[in-house]
Structures are given as C-alpha cells and as structure tokens.
Amino acid sequence: MPQDTKIARPPLYIQADALKGRGSAWAMPHRFEAREREQYDDGWGTLDQSALEEHVAPRTEIIEEQARKILSGNQSPDIGFDLSINPYRGCEHGCIYCFARPTHSYLNLSPGLDFETRIIAKVNAAERLREALSSPAYKPAPLVLGTATDAYQPIERKLRITRAVVEVLTEARHPFSVVTKSSGIERDLDLIVPMALKQQVSVYLSVTSLDPALSRILEPRAASPQRRLQTIKALAEAGVPVGVSVSPVIPFLNEPELERILEAAAEAGATKAFSIPLRLPWEVAPLFHDWLRLHQPDKAARIMARLRDMRGGKDNDPRFGTRFTGEGIWAELLQQRLRKASKRLGLGRERHQFDFSEFRPPAKVVGQQTLF
Predict the structure, then answer these.
(1) Who has the most CB within 10 Å: 6, 60, 120, 146?
(2) Domain coordinates of the chain in residue numbers?
(3) 56-278 belongs to CATH 2.30.30
(4) 137-156 tens-digit pLDDT
C-alpha cells in the first residue's frame, strides 16, 4: 500500500469471549499505536450491559490496493526460496497462531480482529507480476505463492487475484510453490497440472490437526481437516507433486497427532513433509495467550512451559537457524519423531526440484494491446 495511504480504523470492538467464525475477538492495539484506549464505566451500567449483549462477528471488509510491486525478495538465510508473492494482506482463515498477524500493524490495523476481517486485496497483482517477469534484468528463482497470507482464502473465490497471478506464471513457465489450507486450489488444476508435468510446480497442504473440533477454534475459516486430505488426494491423482506441512506444532495440543497426520497425508498421496514448532512473534504472543485462556485453560500453563523450553525460556526466539526448529531436548525429540515417521511412510524431507530451463518472459501488455 502506498506509504501516504492510511486506513481509517473502526471503533474498538468490545472484547467478547469469542466471536463465531473468528479466531480472535480482540481488536488488540499494535506495537506502533500512539494512543491507548480502554473501556470506561460511565455510571449507567454500560460495561454490564455490554457483557450481556450478544456479540456478532463483523463481516469481512475488502480494501482494494494498487500495489507498487508484487515480488518480495527474501534476505533470510534459513528460508529456502528467493521470492514470494502475497496477493492479499491479512487472512480470513483466522488462524490464531498465524505468524503474519503483526504485519497488519504496519497498516495501523490490529493484528487481532482486523487481521482476519479487514483484508487488503492487491487487485493489480497480475499486472505487476507481468511487469517484473518481463524485465530484461529478471532472472527466474525459487518462488512461493502465499507466505504471509493464504493465497486461496475464501475471498479468492470471488476476486480471483491468485488465479490471475498463476495465469501469468503459467504463461512465463515460471516454477513456483504454494502452501495453503484451502481446497480452493483445486479450481486452478487446469493451470497447475500442465506445469506439474514439466516440473514447474509443487503444493503443500497445511494440516494442523485431524480433530474437527480443535481445527474449528484454532483456524475457524480454513477448510476442515478431512477436506484438506481430500485436496491432497485430488492433487496427487492429477499428477501434482504434493506435500504436507504439519505446522505449527503446539505442545500438548496438536503435537500428539504428529504421526497420525503424517500417516493420513501419506495415505492421501503426499510425498513430502515438513513441520515447524509454534512461533509467537510480537503481538501473536498475547493473542495466543488469550486464546489459551478461553479455549484451553487447563493446558495453558503446560503448553507455554514446554514451548518456552524450546525457545530459550522465552515465548519466541527470532534467531536465524533456530526459529523454525526450536532448540533443546524437546525440539530435538520433535525433529526425531518427524524424521522417523517420514522415513517409515516414504515422505521426503527435501524440497521439490524445479526445472527453470523453459522460462520465457511473458508478453508485455499495455491496455488491450500486446507489444512484441
């Protein structure tokens, strides 16, 4: 979003214990907030009345953005790709643990409720991608679609921004990977399958739990666990290289399911697997604490104690080299379980290898005219 563009903030939602279909009911202030706001008893019983009122989840608001660029370069030494494309900012799936929630702070929006209800749609994403790939200076490199948002979140069914991006990648024969929790990717099989046959695409489905009840409160608007397994099967049967991401692993919550998830994914047709322990950067930590208080009060202390054991005694460890694995005996045990289960099930740990030899810059388009 242009730096001089500011988004008007809605009134602070009165915090309810939970909002149907939302991961967080808390429009928590972000770390750049200049002012603090709190509820105030005006003597007329306002707070008591608010506590008794039925809280209705706010509708999703789509804010259109004309992006200046769509390709983001990666400078982190522990990430295995060079470029990423995020067609949206924010994500309606509402996963309470999402590490990308703090990015809404840069828009002067809450990483809590705003992140999942106020979605920024980069409506010119395909146009910007075409410009970038057709530049004489561009060299193809490993690219991932949907790193700080789910490119196939519910609003994509209507806006089709991701579809347009994939069309450009297909035209350019540019390899890419996708990580998603959505069955919506099946819509684009007509584009993805031909690329898969040329070693130009791979897909990972994130399966966090096989328990529908847990999934419903942990990631309320993502596809159900069973539906994700069906998507793995559909992709595999169509010839698309597909893997499973068991991420994040949350001690004592979904961690006991690790092997069962890998088994279910392998049975559905997954051939690769990886897993990352829970990360709680910036505002994600208080949001997750609040979620635990509401949904897992009996396990909250144990979960956080074990997590801190893997994060150097802190809620979060942002250091390169350990942030995606954790450290200590419990982190090592998790990695050992992942390795052994993957080996037993024939799930590879290495990344899919792509063929970049067929890349060709897409045609430059100005209005309705194609320049040759």
Answers:
(1) 146
(2) 56-278
(3) no
(4) 999 999 999 999 999 999 99
